[in-house]
Each structure stands twice: as C-alpha cells, then as structure tokens.
Write a structure and sequence with these properties.
Shape: globular
Distance between the termini: 43 Å
Largest sheet: 5 strands, antiparallel
Number of strands: 5
Number of domains: 1
Bound molecules: zinc ion
CATH superfamily: HIT-like
Order of helices and strands: HEEEHEEH
Mean pLDDT: 91
CATH architecture: 2-Layer Sandwich
CATH class: Alpha Beta
Helix content: 25-40%
Structural class: alpha+beta
Strand content: 15-25%
C-alpha cells in the first residue's frame, strides 16, 4: 500500500502527464493548493532523471501561467521537500500554493533557528 499510488482516486487527478499527476491537497494551506506528484517511486528531487525534471518544470510553469496570468492570482509559491525531511514511503512531490497580497503565508511559520555553516557552503559552491 502506497498512499500516492493507491490512495489517490482517478477522479481526484486534475491534470497529468507521462510522469506526473496533479491533485488538490486534502489539507490545503490555501484554497487551490495543489500537489504535483511523480507517478514512479522517486523519493527525492535528485533521483529524477533530467528529462523528467524538465517535464516537472514544464508543469510548474503551466500552473504559474494559469494562476497568475489567467486567474489574476497575486503569486505562486512552489515548495519541494527533499532529503530526510521527506516523509518515508512517499513519492517525490511538490506543493503549488496560490498566494495573495498580505496573506501572511510566511508569518505563521515558527521556524526554530539553527546554525548554518556559511563558510563550508560557499567553499562547496566554487
Ligand atoms: Zn507509490
């Protein structure tokens, strides 16, 4: 039993391509909050082959164009969890969230401050 293979009914799928399906999130942060889900068991963004990652970008841009250009939504936030913050046994998925001016989307987050090794990160970039 896989929640994304077996737990999504056909009628929940609002859009699909060869490698992805899109559904509305059952616990939305905002009305219209969508999940873009890989059909195969990729557990991680880095596991997606380049051509499939390109398909992902194509869907993201299609959704942004519809929301921002056709529906006059103020903006869109895309969230991809990766690495160990992914829930076990799920698929690669991405949140597409319609945004509005002064919607306080970030202000309700209470992130615990942690230290980040800026020197190591910057040395690894070069
Ligand atoms: Zn699955």
């Amino acid at each position: 039993m896989c929640i994304f293979c077996d737990g999504i009914k056909k009628e929940q799928i609002i859009y699909e391509t060869e490698h992805f399906k899109v559904v509305f999130d059952i616990d939305p942060e905002q009305e219209g909050h969508m999940l873009l889900i890989s059909k195969h068991h990729y557990m991680n963004y880095l596991d997606l082959p380049d051509e499939i990652a390109f398909e992902l970008i194509h869907i993201e841009r299609k959704m942004i164009r519809i929301l921002e250009d056709e529906m006059n939504i103020y903006g869109v936030t895309l969230i991809r969890n990766n690495g160990r913050v992914m829930d076990n046994g799920t698929h690669f998925h991405e949140h597409i969230i319609p945004r509005y001016k002064d919607d306080k989307f970030w202000s309700k987050k209470e992130t615990k401050p942690m230290t980040f090794d800026f020197a190591l990160f910057l040395s690894l970039l070069s």
